Amino acid sequence: GSEESACDAFFGQLHWYDVRWRFGGPRTSGGCLLPRREGFRRSLAFAASSEAGDILGIINVEYLDADTAEVALIVRSDLKHQGIGALLLSHVMNWSRTSGLKWLTGHVMTDNKAMLRLALAAGFICVGGDQALVELNWPIDTPA
């Protein structure tokens, strides 16, 4: 379908280190960025795209349980540092306030300084990690 081909085209414009930062290792196609359902686990994907329909960035949201979802973000390698990631993260944080979730969580590689800066600036809190990964949480401040 068109979603798969758009994801593959986006994936083809990613540097290997961006793929490593997002997935922890190599991947061969963009299909891994599409939403899916496996049993009770479901995932969503929000994309920023150009007027021509080219994907500029994708943020994936995977429900870990009824209260918590893990977010993972990737921006096209040639378009980083232009606010696309901040826009996508802000969109998901706003969306999560009405989703029934209580927490967003994420895992960022320690050498992915730009993503760490973005998450911390957005309000995520470092809650753990090791030499390779930092675990970040954001308590969703649902409106009363």
How would you describe this structure to a colleague?
- The longest helix has 13 residues, at 84-96.
- β1 and β2 form a beta hairpin.
- A seven-stranded mixed sheet has the order 1-2-3-4-5-7-6, with helices on both faces.
- Helix content is 28%, strand content 33%.
- It starts with a helix and ends in a 5-residue tail after the last strand.
- With 144 residues, the chain is an alpha+beta fold.
- It has helices spanning 2-11, 16-23, 84-96, 113-122; strands at residues 37-38, 41-49, 55-63, 68-75, 103-109, 125-129, 133-139.
The SS-based structural class is alpha+beta
Largest sheet: 7 strands, mixed
Which runs of at least 5 residues are low in confidence (pLDDT < 50)? Answer: none
What is the 3D form? globular
For the secondary structure, the number of strands is 7
Strand % is: 25-35%
Order of helices and strands: HHEEEEHEHEE
Average pLDDT over all residues: 89
Number of helices: 4
What's the quick description here?
28% of the residues lie in helices and 33% in strands. It is of the alpha+beta class and 144 residues long.
Summary tags:
alpha+beta, seven-stranded mixed beta sheet, 4 helices, about 35% strand, about 30% helix, globular, about 140 residues
Outline the fold blueprint.
Blueprint: H1 2-11, H2 16-23, E1 37-38, E2 41-49, E3 55-63, E4 68-75, H3 84-96, E5 103-109, H4 113-122, E6 125-129, E7 133-139
Parallel strand pairs: 4-5
Antiparallel strand pairs: 1-2, 2-3, 3-4, 5-7, 6-7
